[in-house]
Amino acid sequence: MSFNILVVDDSLPMRKVIKKTIMASGFAMAEYNEAGDGTEALAILREKWIDIVVTDYNMPGMNGLELVNEMKKDDLLKSVPVIVITTEGSKTRIDEFREKGVSGYIKKPFTPEEIRTVLHEILGEPHDDKGYESSDDDVDF
Amino acid sequence: MMIKDMKAAMTTSISDVLETMFYMPLEFEDTGDPESRGIFDTGDLRVCKLDFKGSMSGYLVMMIPETLLVSMAVDFMGEERENIVRMHTDGIIKEVVNMVLGHMLSNIDEKNDFHLGIPQILEDRSIVQGIRKQLPECCVFAESIEGLLLSALVLDE
Question: Are B98 and A90 a contacting pair at CB < 8 A?
Answer without folding.
Answer: no
